[in-house]
Amino acid sequence: MSQPMYLDRLDTPLPDRPWKDVLDSTDKSLKQKEKGPWTALSKEEKIALYRLKFNHTYPEMKRPSHEWKTVIGGMFIVFGITGLVVFWQCHYVYPPQPHTFGEEWQAKQIQRMLDMRINPITGFSAQWDYKNKQWK
Amino acid sequence: MFRAAVRLSVSGARSLTWTRLGCTAPLAQRCYSHGGKQETDDEFDARWVNYFNKADIDAWELRKGMNTLIGYDLVPEPKILDAALRACRRLDDLASAIRILEAVKDKSGPHKDIYPYLIQELRPTVDELGISTPEELGMDKL
């Protein structure tokens, strides 16, 4: 961290140090040629000079990755495992349902609520047609 | 990925300036929140042109200048880029010159007509100094 670091960042075009610090003799001679007029450099030499100083070009920095497939795939795997855990739990962990959840009990409960006229104006009993004995 | 830069965030105002004046680059906007004297666009440009025109500019100053300039919410005017490219020449640094052109193309974001305009304005300088644009070197493709 205390040394100058190279970093490819879109908002930092010129990093603290060149990509290739250690130059061999061909690189050194190319760097010498760079001191002269740049019109004398061929396209390959210009590209070579760029690659000495920088790792990725801007399009290479902005290239899309396949990371999203890993993320979505991992997400679904976790959902799957969670689903299995929940299923096992329902089967082995939960106690039996209270008897008040049964069909017969629920039917008697609803009849009692209607007899008591629960929320007769805008709520429960308001939905029941007392004359025709059916839901509105 | 980890990129969170918001580029040309006031793009509404930018495009107004853009279309009204025809084919000019977006103007710089520097706002001092303490309410002091506002720097005009020309003063901003002149300040940066002076910075890069320093005869004995060193590599650090070039890097610092460019990184700061790219950090602003604007695309630099051609005259600033011209001074920066000439500074690269004084430092015998062709790679940085090409990198600067890549950076301003990226800075334009979705406004695809800014970069061709900049290249058109910089064409004399680029030809004089012998800089090849990233397109000429085939480096604008993956």
Task: Give the fraction of residues assigned to helices of chain A.
Answer: 40-55%
CATH superfamily of the largest domain in chain A: Cytochrome c oxidase subunit IV
Q: How would you characterize the largest beta sheet of chain B?
A: none
User: What's the Cα radius of gyration of chain B?
Assistant: 15 Å
Note the quaternary state here. Answer: heterodimer
Portion in beta strands of chain A: under 5%
> Widest sheet of chain A: strand order?
1-2
GO biological process, one term (chain B): mitochondrial electron transport, cytochrome c to oxygen
Keywords (chain B): Acetylation, Heme, Iron, Membrane, Metal-binding, Mitochondrion, Mitochondrion inner membrane, Phosphoprotein, Transit peptide, Ubl conjugation
GO molecular function, one term (chain B): metal ion binding
Protein name (chain B): Cytochrome c oxidase subunit 5A, mitochondrial
Describe the structure.
The complex is a heterodimer of chains A (136) and B (142). Chain A has helices spanning 25-34, 43-53, 58-61, 67-92, 103-115; strands at 128-129, 134-135. Chain A is mostly helical and 136 residues long. In chain B, helix 2 (41-53) packs parallel to helix 4. Helix content of chain B is 56%, strand content 0%. Chain B is mainly α.
Name its key features.
heterodimer, A: 136 residues, mainly alpha, Cytochrome C Oxidase, Chain D, 2 domains, 2 strands, rod-shaped, B: 142 residues
Give a nutshell description of this structure.
Chain A is mainly alpha-helical. Chain A contains five helices and two strands. Chain A folds into two domains: 63 residues, Cytochrome c oxidase subunit IV (Cytochrome C Oxidase, Chain D); 69 residues, Orthogonal Bundle (Cytochrome C Oxidase, Chain D).
List the helices and strands and how they pair.
The complex is a heterodimer of chains A (136) and B (142).
Chain A: H1 25-34, H2 43-53, H3 58-61, H4 67-92, H5 103-115, E1 128-129, E2 134-135
Antiparallel strand pairs in A: 1-2
Chain B: H1 11-20, H2 41-53, H3 59-71, H4 78-90, H5 94-107, H6 114-129
